[in-house]
Amino acid sequence: MADDVVKIEIACTVNGESRRFRAWPMERLLDVLRRELKLTGTKEGCGEGECGACAVLLDGALVNSCLVPVAQAAGCEILTIEGLARGEQLSAIQEAFVECGGAQCGICTPGMVMAAAALLERERQPGERQIRAGLSGNLCRCTGYTKIFEAVVRACQATGVRR
Amino acid sequence: MDSAEHKYLGHSVLRKEGRDKVTGRARYVDDLDFPGALHGVTVRSDIPRGRIRKIEFGAGIPWNEFIVVTAADIPGANYVALFERDQPFLASDGVNHSEEAIVLLAHPDPYLLEEARRAVRIEYEPLPAIFTLDESLAGKEIIWGKDNVFKSYHLEKGDVEAALARADLIVEGEYRTAAQEQLYIEPQGMVAIANPRDGVTVWGSLQCPYYVQRALVALFNLPAEKIRVVQAETGGGFGGKEEYPSMIAGHAALLAWKSGKPVKIIYDRAEDMAATTKRHPSRTRHRTAVTRDGKLLAMDIDFALDGGAYATLSSVVLSRGTIHAAGPYSCPNVRIHSKVVATNLPPQGAFRGFGAPQSVFSLERHFDRVAAAVGLAPEEFRRRNFIRTGETTATGQVIREAVDMPGLLDRALRESGYAAKRETFARENHGRALKKGIGLAAFFHGAGFTGSGEEYLASVVEAEGTPEGRVRILAASTEIGQGTNTIFSQIAADALGIPYDRIEIAQPDTAAVPNSGPTVASRTSMIVGKLVESAAIGIKQSLVAANLLAAGGVYTPEDFARACREYISAHGPLRARVQYHPPPGVKWDDKTYTGEAYCAYAWAVYVAEVTVDLATFETRVDDFVAVQEVGKVIHPVLAAGQIEGGVAQAIGFALYENVIWQQGRMANGQMTNYIMPTAADLPRIRVIFEETPSPHGPSGAKGIGELPLDGGAPAIVSAIENAAGIVLREIPVVPERLMEALEAKAGMRG
To answer: What number of C-beta contacts closer than 8 Å exist between A and B?
Structure first.
């Protein structure tokens, strides 16, 4: 870090809670979530926005947190994988991932689940083409994606709008 | 066990650690928090071969704040213990490949650490290097041993020369496969705490805790009980975390030893791709003699692998590749000569399939040539030569299983609509820029270690009953996404007659679990699963023998808990320990490479359907049918997940994944330019299991994990050839390669 750059105070909402912390303005949102806020559910797979393991929702939009400078998150609402379940009650998409075998090694799962959640916010009943497009920014090396598609379809069928 | 007793085996129960994985609670190595920990980084060679003249620490860095480790700091021996003692933890005199570790640095501030890493300058006296199999085989430079050869095998069945001399027809061909990166989404990493008083403890992303322990024993010259290795949740391995984690564990532990503080080394993607192992590039030559009506007379196979700069596991990869090179066919005369040789590339290593995907690709592509030469359809030529029960493999192993390759072939052809599509495509492709094709591959994959491997491993599993009536399974077999925790729990629950959620799986930790062998070679379900079953039965027998449980009777979980409690208060710990013993009659000769190579095989026929775009030269897989016989399927969802994921990796191997080497260095070590399949690229993979229970696995299960890597690529390339009317001898079939092949064909015509 150059000497003339100073840490700034940042306030934002993370998983529904107001948070305040000091960070370098260009620090990656990913690092702040993991190191400062101890939210280690968000993963780093590539650090260049290719794999989507670090995906979170920033004011409702799916972003790769490895490409977001934390200053850009000031005043925003951030939703990470830790904020998706209501206590012990999994969201419909999380439940479907467990039931359908959508998670194998699990490292892509948090980002994949966030991408699926974002997709289901946009489309109530996405078709296969939309599911493929909606998840194509998230790489999975274990599943070949078939079980992940099945999980998204099952989550759509689940009763209620729990997501 | 009678199948009526199976409450869990054969059913898709929820993955044991599924909830933790979908909520972000699962703790991978980089999620572990060690207060006061330093970050560690590795300074690596930037030339492929040379002597190290000088190491300089550049200006502008407060070096006194850093922990610096070189080979001189190593307390024990400077080699990564595997088969040979050739690979150092830290290079001292010379380097043999780019990205070889030379200096380690640690500091609390990861940003400053990165600047420091770049400020270390290493001066070399460069030496000539070799980068390809052909250069190594030709002895352009001798860089390893007397002749660059890490290992060679020679296998002979019948009289190949005599058969070649009287054959109606001999078909020759040469085929190549490229390096492939495992590309687990979690990069490699380790955390270590180490000091002379307590010894060394490491936590990491790994497949084989006892491999890491063995490597650290030599590195620190400490007894095994002073080295503790714990597996953190692991984000994919595919073989990539079989041997390389020993290297990183050593590095983290050396920095921890010198600093007295915990040290965490987490590779970023670029470092992981550049420095760690990949699938061995291969070259295979076939000479096949057949009768006029398409019966195999002789197979003469020359199989070669590029092992990179150090021996690692190459000899074993070569072994599996060699044994699978003649495929699931019956041939009276077979000769296989194989070699793995050294180059100045970073060492190649384990990757799902372990040599077999290379030799199977070559054989299956070649068999399409042979079929064409005798005027038979690819499926008909195979049908005439499939191995049957009672016949012998290339190693002379008599197949005792009830194998039915023609049945699998029929099923795959039917499910894929092969015959009708072949006809339709031939009719409709004319004049179209989007050409369709369909192709197939037939293959087998041996489960468990080769030959006497399992006997030498002599794996151990323990089970322990608790006063609460829970049973804990203790094994070093790791969960890396494939479902170890779940499958072991299903097996134990059914063996004990208690609910699935009463089974606990101990975290793999060398201080707490016995050595059940490495998590590799499609051995976990079949070999270790069988031990889990025996250990669970052992617990039940103890309770029955103590008259606390009725032998054949029905009992509730509460009855079982009471029995456990009473046993423990009367007799002490309730434990069962079992060890692997080879089934009787299994004979293997390492010298002649003959005998029972594997006690069970999985058998398969895959059909791929593709569209080839003659404007962009891109290939798209439109449909994929995977039919396999894997014994009893323990968990249908997990098993299908193994096949789907393996086929996806095989599609990458066939079409997209192209390691570009420049002066022995991976030039495209990023996910932006090393392309693996995305959700938008893959078809739905249709998975069909035929189940013929094997006597060797728990309730008849066989190995499954590696199988799908073998057949995907040859089926896809067969389909491309069918679509485009060309011959392809090398993968990956990236657009550039397809363009060249099509231009060559057009050139021949014009």
So the answer is: 167
